[in-house]
Design goal:
mainly alpha; elongated
């Protein structure tokens, strides 16, 4: 089952990455309707992604099931910086500016906002590098450097690529038609009553927060079956799995401990049997076995007892036995005479392999087997089972059993410990980056306020949809803080660049911000095609976060900026 699930995840990686790249490029083509812009942004993000995984190969050397899909996520988010920059360049070109001036002015206008977004996203990923879970640490490292490298690649390559294309085939700037645009008129109408907008968001955010807190005690996914793969032919695999257990007459789920000697392995199992006399181990553990279940200990002493039994079945004794019973006793006497010491070399490999180490040694392993009705797919049962194999006294030492069940149990505990901490650290890091780079406490507070509201809305919607937290999607919260601050930061910086003209700035940068969010959603959306349920839940969580934080950045934040501008005007 585990091999089949691993192969399914590996198969998902290539297909989702290809689909994500194709959809992102198609979206960029439809937005810009300009081949040179698409090629430029595509080459920039390709360079950033290549550098990211090149550094990953040098620093880590491999991907795991938690980081395998980061290619899609880095593409979906790393392309945002190029989209914002190229959108600004095209606006300036439509205003009649030559390419060089447009590239320079576009960089001055967008570099700070995109650097802020890149740094904040990198921090939110980087916080995961502090987690105890190695998969989280790798996820944080790869995502963190990926965002910074994509930003650097964008501003290092995009102006040069545009210049090369301009020399190959010059394009004269086409000024936009004069007059007030329809989009700006629609924005004026939407933000006619900013106080009402903020009141509405406050009410909805409070309701979402209350629902999130109400469901929080039951938000953890504790049924591991809901995190497994939906494999083609899975029912056949499950039947084979059940048939294997039936043929052995016991469960094949359990854990294993490596001891210093065969005697220590026996002492370990004796301690486990002592624990089996009390709940909850009594209802979860079927037994503990060593190589002695295949090759008995103290064979000479046992053979001596068998010889004594054989001696009792003498011819004189058998002569006085009923003839029918005598035939049976003669057969038993012959079996007893045939008994001799058995070595490990003579034992069937099918019985001995579970006690064999990679180097060929046998005898030092102790195997704890779960009861067939233990239901280790349920988190509480799994944790109780693994706890029964921890800290087992063997002489002066304490020994822990290990195995797949122990790993999953530790992952569940890790979520409860690391999830809240990494989320808070991520938000704190994003706050620090925003306030440091904006150098405006009021503007920074509004950007962070809209971000926090969006994340609370995400939590409330996830609770309403009964979308539970698991060992994979728990990172959606810290990552959303870093990625979603991109949208509010670009709007806020553009408003400042435009001298406080909120609606005009929103009309300029809003379409590019929406495209950025859309490409990110594509990156997460590719996860919905995964066979792995945990991976799909991560995709749903992240998409919810994109939708809610985009909404607060595009509607709630401008409303706050409008009210702040009005108050400043009244004071003046």
């Amino acid at each position: 089952m585990f091999i089949a699930e691993y192969e399914a995840v590996v198969g998902d990686v290539a297909s989702t990455a290809a689909l994500c790249t194709a959809l992102v490029l198609l979206s960029v083509i439809l937005f810009f309707r300009d081949v040179r812009s698409v090629v430029s942004v595509g080459l920039c993000v390709a360079a950033g992604v290549a550098l990211t995984f090149g550094v990953t190969w040098i620093a880590i050397g491999y991907l795991n099931t938690q980081t395998a899909f980061l290619g899609s996520i880095v593409v979906g988010n790393g392309i945002n910086y190029g989209l914002i920059y190229l959108a600004r360049v095209k606006q300036l070109r439509r205003a009649g500016e030559p390419l060089l001036t447009a590239c320079e002015d576009g960089a001055r206008t967008t570099a700070m906002a995109t650097l802020l977004a890149s740094a904040a996203t990198s921090v939110s990923f980087g916080v995961l590098a502090l987690a105890g879970n190695r998969g989280f640490r790798h996820f944080g490292f790869i995502g963190g450097i990926g965002m910074l490298l994509c930003w650097a690649a964008t501003f290092a390559l995009a102006p040069a690529l545009l210049s090369v294309f301009e020399k190959i085939r010059p394009v004269a700037p086409v000024p936009a038609a004069a007059g007030r645009s329809t989009s700006l008129a629609a924005i004026d109408w939407l933000f006619a009553r900013p106080r009402a907008i903020l009141a509405g968001f406050a009410a909805v955010t409070l309701a979402a927060s209350a629902l999130f807190l109400l469901r929080l005690p039951h938000s953890m996914e504790r049924n591991l079956d809901n995190l497994s793969n939906e494999l083609r032919g899975v029912e056949e695999l499950r039947r084979d799995h059940a048939r294997a257990q039936t043929s052995l007459g016991k469960s094949i789920a359990g854990s294993v401990a490596l001891l210093d000697s065969r005697d220590d392995a026996e002492r370990f199992c004796q301690a486990i049997r002592t624990r089996m006399q009390h709940a909850p181990a009594s209802r979860l553990i079927d037994g503990c076995e060593t190589i002695s279940s295949v090759v008995p200990r103290d064979q000479e002493a046992k053979l001596s007892l068998l010889r004594e039994v054989r001696a009792e079945l003498s011819d004189r004794v058998l002569a006085h036995v009923d003839p029918k019973l005598r035939e049976r006793l003669v057969s038993i006497r012959q079996d007893l005479e045939a008994q001799r010491p058995v070595s490990a070399d003579e034992a069937p490999a099918t019985l001995l392999d579970r006690f064999r180490e990679r180097d060929g040694n046998v005898g030092r392993l102790a195997v704890i087997t779960a009861r067939p009705d233990a239901k280790l797919e349920l988190g509480p049962n799994l944790q109780a089972f693994t706890d029964a194999g921890r800290g087992v006294p063997v002489g002066v030492k304490k020994v822990d059993a290990t195995g797949e069940s122990v790993i999953f149990a530790d992952l569940l505990r890790n979520i409860e410990k690391e999830g809240p901490r990494t989320t808070l650290l991520s938000f704190a890091g994003v706050c620090g980056i925003v306030l440091f780079l904006l150098r405006d406490a009021g503007m920074g507070a509004r950007v962070l306020g809209s971000l926090a509201a969006g994340v609370l809305l995400m939590g409330g919607m996830a609770a309403a949809a009964n979308l539970k937290v698991n060992f994979l999607n728990v990172i959606a919260y810290p990552i959303t803080f870093g990625i979603a601050v991109d949208y509010g930061a670009n709007i806020a910086v553009r408003v400042r660049e435009r001298g406080g003209r909120v609606l005009e700035s929103l009309a300029e940068v809003g379409p590019a911000v929406i495209l950025c969010s859309w490409t990110t959603i594509i990156g997460y959306g590719s996860l919905l095609l995964s066979l792995n349920r945990a991976m799909r839940s991560f995709g749903w969580y992240a998409i919810l976060g994109e939708a809610t934080t985009l909404l607060t950045a595009m509607v709630m934040l401008p409303a706050m900026l409008l009210l702040a501008r009005r108050r400043a005007s009244l004071k003046a």
